[in-house]
Amino acid sequence: MFHLGWFVGNGYSVQSWNRDWAGTDNEDWYSPALYSDAARALERAAFDFMVFQDGLMVPDIFGGSMEADLKFAQEIPRSDPTAMVAILSQVTKNLGYIPTISTSFYPPFMAARMLTTLDQLSSGHAGGNLVTSASDRAAQNFGFDNHHAHDLRYEMAEEWADLVTQLWDSWEPGSVIMDTEKHVFADYTKVHPIEFEGRFYSSRGPLNTPPGPQGRPVISQAGGSPAGREFGARFADVIFCVPNGLDSMRAYREDIHRRMEKYGREPGECKILFMVDPVIGETDQVARDIASARAEAKRSDAYVEEHLSVMSYFSGIDFAAFDLDQPMPDLDGKVNAQQSTMARYQKDAAGKTLRELVIEHNMVATIDLVGSPATVAAKMGEVMEEVGGDGFLLSGPLNRKNIAEITDGLVPELKRLGLTRPRYTKPTLRENLREF
Ligand SMILES: Cc1cc2nc3c(=O)[nH]c(=O)nc-3n(C[C@H](O)[C@H](O)[C@H](O)COP(=O)(O)O)c2cc1C
């Protein structure tokens, strides 16, 4: 069997306000209604978790202005996903929730406390998607002139995660005794200051709240550069990745497993999920027609402009300055933002003009999945057989139609084939992830 996660790629934001199947998104996008409907459906389909993207700035790289980003709602709005997750955790019992947390900008003590609080509220179903953040604008919101250099961010992240882990461990198991006869809540001999003094961070500890049901909330990670992979191999319970095609998927997985060995970790301790965006139709032909219509829609000037603004955000480089009818310039060594994301574009750029690249590049899928529920389910099974792998991160648009196609169309087929869990049997998110 393999695992399923759902990636809310826009974070807590507008979702389909200007697209098909928007529902009431343009009236009540900030209400929890859409997310709680999605959470119930994902739980019915026995998904492991829902993960929320997040960012901490308004981008203005494209054309040197916020205009395109505000127009396209690109990286904005971003309301705080930790608050949303607290609400959603009251709607379901078994689904996991993973908000994105920036190691560069959240003080470790605050993050440790917040994730423990979410773990308590969700009865052991919380995690944090640890990112280092990629933009100077985010850094400037926190008082820095510019963001730290790429690899330094990951060195800081390692220390940050080390410190947060020590805070989570600062209450020994059994420290809360709640002895009503003797009037003792916690045994003071089992709660310890950590006296952490690092290169970048220090904290005395202990944490001022005891661990939730998981002790350490689940950690997920998505950085694909060598430094990002090293960080994931050391700390993550689950890694999300977008390698292109079967060979790259297999290689990515083997690389993470090799890196995990160094830290004395078994492959089963970290699940590697591949991003996909299935296009489902009643029949294979219907699905192919939908996929063609979507590909055609990408030829519009508006789509090209929007995608260029996204690439500007990913790279920190203004793509308005490049000629659309020339190849994408070689950016190797020039990206201080999301390096592996831009390396993926660079690889895909061979033999294409920038315009062709923008129209054809799929940001969120490792393989094409187009067909009826039965066809796509069978293909997902074959891919897992062939590359190994622990499952998929579904990354399509968050609207009720798309959710239903996956949870009530595709997943019943996956279950019928015995590929995903029929129902939950474990009490926490981490135990669900370790189930197979
Ligand atoms: C599935 C997925 C989710 C991600 N979510 C976020 C996010 O919420 N916020 C963010 O700043 N970066 C996010 N990223 C970007 C990664 O954290 C990372 O910066 C990017 O993959 C490039 O990695 P690298 O700098 O190690 O090459 C995400 C990436 C992927 C593949």
From TrEMBL:
Name of the protein: NtaA/DmoA family FMN-dependent monooxygenase
Region (Disordered): 206-225
Organism expressing this protein natively: Herbiconiux oxytropis
GO molecular function: monooxygenase activity; oxidoreductase activity, acting on paired donors, with incorporation or reduction of molecular oxygen
Family: Belongs to the NtaA/SnaA/DszA monooxygenase family.
Chain ranges of the Luciferase-like domain: 37-390
Keyword Oxidoreductase: yes
EC number: 1.14.-.-
Keyword Zinc attributed: no
Root EC class: oxidoreductase
